[in-house]
Amino acid sequence: MTTVIPPEAAGTTPTATIALPPSESVGRQTWQAFRRNPLGMVSAAILVLLGVVALAAPLIADYPSGYGEEVLAGPGAGHWFGTDDLGRDVFAQVIWGTRVSIVVGLAASLLAIVIGVLVGVLAAYFRPADLLLGIIVDVSLSLPVLPLMILVAALAGPSVPTLVVVIAVFSWPEVARVVRSQGLAVVPMPYVSAAHVIGGSHLWVIRKHVLPGVAPVVAVSVVLTTSRAVLSEAGLSFLGLGDPNSWSWGTILHQAQRSGSLATAWWTTLFPSLAILLLVVATTLLAVAYNDARNPRTR
């Protein structure tokens, strides 16, 4: 006869099953890490504020046009940012310039991102095309960007669509290089090979696996490319190649330089310059904070 000894009698205790909490998604971990970064949160708040100012410009200030009675008046209660050589309110110029500068920056950035992601993904996925596309990207990056942008903008004529296209054409190579580098790490992954084995088409594999793999890099590229596009727009407008029928931060600086008040009336250049600096610093810090948040080593 066989005697079955229970675990308690044998001096052992049954093993308890511990229910582990479900692992958090990568997106949630990234957001929690980003939320703990005060510089990232402040930068995001500044960019949201600038976006609200751009959308609500008609509610904040009247469109600066015509002439005013107070010429080159310093900042005060009536004119917070002073007036220019024609008596126009600089505060209204900065507010309305926010709309054009952000629109040009976002539109040029999105167009550059579309071209750069397309070229970068094709170069990483189709290895035979990598050599040709790599040569095109390298040649584009070696060109003197600013003189060519000035030349193309001068030949095409000053307008907002011209600025968007010119800035995007000279901004996509940097995006393509970053996306290609990330794509080269994603394409050899086992799940991408498994997608080919089950009969997935190239378009389906790119859409379902490659693009999500390079998405974090694209998000950072959107932010950084937008800040560079705003700087490029301000530079071209300062040189007189912006749209003369609309206000932007670069146009304000151009008007101050053309009127000779660039050195005598400091307020005509200080406030639009601070607006440009604020946007560029906020976008840069936001990109750095997001990069740190999505990196497990720095999270």
TrEMBL record:
Q: Does the keyword Cytoplasm apply?
A: no
Domain annotation ABC transmembrane type-1: ranges:
98-287
- Write down the InterPro entries for this protein, in alphabetical order: BP-dependent_transpt_permease, MetI-like, MetI-like_sf, OppC_N
Name a Pfam family for this protein: OppC_N
Superkingdom: Bacteria
Q: Which residues, by range, are in coiled-coil regions?
A: none
| Cellular location(s) | Cell membrane
Transmembrane stretches in the record are: 38-61, 102-126, 184-206, 213-231, 270-290
Keywords tagged on the record? Cell membrane, Membrane, Transmembrane, Transmembrane helix, Transport
Q: How does it sit in the membrane?
A: Multi-pass membrane protein
Keyword check for Magnesium, yes or no.
no
PANTHER family, from UniProt?
D,D-DIPEPTIDE TRANSPORT SYSTEM PERMEASE PROTEIN DDPC-RELATED, OLIGOPEPTIDE TRANSPORT SYSTEM PERMEASE PROTEIN APPC
Family assignment from sequence similarity: Belongs to the binding-protein-dependent transport system permease family.
The protein in question is named ABC transporter permease
> Which species does the entry assign this protein to?
Plantactinospora sonchi
Classification lineage:
Bacteria, Bacillati, Actinomycetota, Actinomycetes, Micromonosporales
